[in-house]
Design a protein that fits this description.
This protein has 183 residues and is mostly helical. The protein has helices spanning 3-11, 15-37, 40-56, 67-84, 93-102, 110-129, 132-144, 148-155, 159-182.
Length: 183
């Protein structure tokens, strides 16, 4: 079922239609938020905020077939609002405890897990240092497993530009991370 059909059903009061839109678009909304704010706990809250704002203002959507770009724009605005507010420095205790609960060593030793976490931390720090255009396309590509054309349509650029940005972002990360490990 298309986005336009689901939007029409949601506007007619069909709750399941909006739930389908949320399932379809929440990974992309999450990626947009994470790319903008750089914190998983805040990105999750902001994605929820964007989805709620979209539900409340669904009647204002001029072209229901453009639901994806429309909700991505709402996510960007939610992030900008948050960044302008004083909340960005806060980390809730529930976010910390939830993160601790998700950690599972499995078959790794404590030192292997510590090394893995350090590598991920280094990678995410470098991703956050990338210019927004590169960081955004990288996060959207890996969070949502989009095609180049889907990303191009969402960001309003060509698929070739997406390819160039991803290539450049990966190159920048390789250079930064190889430099870190050579020290």
């Amino acid at each position: 079922m298309s986005d336009a059909e689901l939007v029409g059903q949601a506007l007619a009061g069909e709750q399941r239609a909006y739930e389908q839109l949320v399932r379809r678009w929440s990974p992309r909304v999450m990626a947009v938020c994470h790319a903008r704010v750089g914190r998983a706990d805040a990105a999750d809250d902001l994605a929820q905020e964007a989805l709620l704002r979209a539900l409340r203002s669904l009647r204002t959507l001029a072209d229901p077939s453009k639901f994806g770009p429309w909700i991505s724009g709402i996510a960007v605005r939610a992030c900008l609002d948050w960044l302008k507010s004083g909340q960005r420095g806060e980390v809730s205790l529930s976010a910390i405890s939830a993160a601790e609960e998700r950690v599972s060593l499995g078959h790794r030793t404590v030192s292997e897990e510590a090394e893995r976490r350090e590598s991920i931390r280094e990678l995410m720090e470098e991703v956050q240092r990338l210019p927004l255009a590169y960081r955004e396309v990288l996060m959207l590509y890996y969070y949502d497993d989009c095609t180049y054309q889907e990303l191009a349509d969402m960001l309003g650029v060509s698929a070739a530009t997406i390819n160039a940005r991803l290539t450049k972002a990966r190159q920048m990360l390789r250079e930064k991370l190889s430099g870190c490990h050579e020290l």
